[in-house]
From TrEMBL:
Name of the protein described by the UniProt record: Rieske domain-containing protein
One Pfam family named in its UniProt record: Rieske
Organism per entry: Microbacterium arabinogalactanolyticum
Annotated InterPro entries: Rieske_2Fe-2S (IPR017941), Rieske_2Fe-2S_sf (IPR036922)
Domain Rieske: 4-100
Recorded superkingdom: Bacteria
UniProt cross-references to Gene3D superfamilies, sorted A to Z: Rieske [2Fe-2S] iron-sulphur domain
UniProt KW keywords: 2Fe-2S, Iron, Iron-sulfur, Metal-binding
Amino acid sequence: MTALRACGVSELELDTPLRVELDGVAMAIVKDAAGDIHAIGDRCTHGDISLAEGFVEGDTLECWAHGSRFSLLSGKPLNLPAYEPVPVYVVEIDGDDVLIDPTVIKEV
């Protein structure tokens, strides 16, 4: 599969997750304070909660329900109660388009 348009760069607010669904795969897209754009699986592995409703701090996304923080770079949980990682997707930028292939998980 080729990368699909997830959103526009101009649609992303700093440190504010955006939930998108591409080909049935839910993900949270984040533009961090450094301006880097990340895409990770949208479901917290602890409580099946949308991570796009969480809080961004640096290069982490915190689940609002139970406080687990996930690395935007690796998808790994940084604290309990979550202990399983979420997938991280490769992000491509083409002009204002954020492109992601939901079938390709980033190797970390």
